[in-house]
Amino acid sequence: MDRSDSAAGAEPQYPTAESVADFEHNIAAVQSRITAAAERAGRDAAEIRLLPVSKTVPEDRIRLAVQAGCRSLGENKVQEAKRKHGNLSDLDVSWSVIGHLQTNKAKEVAAFASEFQALDSLRAAEALDRRLQMAGHELDVFVQVNTSGEESKFGLPPGELPGFLAQLPQYTALRVRGLMTLAVFTPDTSRVRGCFALLRSLRDRARAESPELIGPGELSMGMSGDYETAIEEGATVVRVGQAIFGARAVPDSHYWPSS
Ligand SMILES: *Cc1c(COP(=O)(O)O)cnc(C)c1O
User: At what angle do helices 78-87 and 59-67 cross, to 10 degrees?
Assistant: First the structure.
């Protein structure tokens, strides 16, 4: 099931933020929901990082978001991220690539990104590492796991994670920070929660078996529609676009091609 035919009617409206005040309002609203979700789960909200996702948002509005306090931005597509990084280089903001990487784009990511959250193949790891070694710096990475079992989602099958993690130390420019996932798109919260709980249990198992392979063991999970559930299940990074910037016109199938 994909988002366009499932949760559309049930989703909140996300008005477009058009001013610094709009962004301040939206960010504060998301932050307070993060805090509330953390409290419900008996967690410290300070351990949860909000990553604003600016894909499809034009640069003039991104400037307003940065004025309102955004210091890091997530982008799904490398070309778009690279263009924005270039055009907004006067701003003090770091760029996180959160979408699938084609190996021919590794050079670009190595050049401008401060984080890559969608590592799911050794080919991508190898290509990134080679470019990073040439550039002489390191990159924080999250390994993406397909916790929903949907063919249309990127990410490693859960059973392949331990073997994959065991291969990563050879890529010395990659700093493994933890795991990332997208939950199934459905209004059925228990199925969404199941995806997040699975990612956490994979992290816990990796920590128990080979703690040196998982770094700090962060969990990047949760988007505008499900970040509170993700926090209840242990998210340390939530990737929130529409609840901060406003609804996107581009359908999600552009980012997660249907199978
Ligand atoms: C777009 C995107 C998000 C944010 O989704 P919203 O619905 O805008 O909050 C999170 N993660 C990834 C990988 C994305 O591409």
Answer: 70
Q: pTM higher than 0.85 for the full model? A: yes
Pairwise CA distance, residues 183 & 85, whole Å: 28
Topology of domain 20-247, per CATH?
A: TIM Barrel (3.20.20)
User: Distance, CA 26 to ligand 1 centroid (Å)?
Assistant: 16
* Ligand 1 shell residues, CB under 6 Å: 53, 55, 76, 98-99, 182, 223-224, 239-243, 255
Radius of gyration of the chain (CA): 17
pLDDT digits (tens, 9 = 90+) for 123-153: 999 999 999 999 999 999 999 999 999 887 7
**How many Å apart are CA 86 and CA 80, to the nearest integer?**
10
User: Which two three-digit tokens encode residue 182?
Assistant: 């997208």
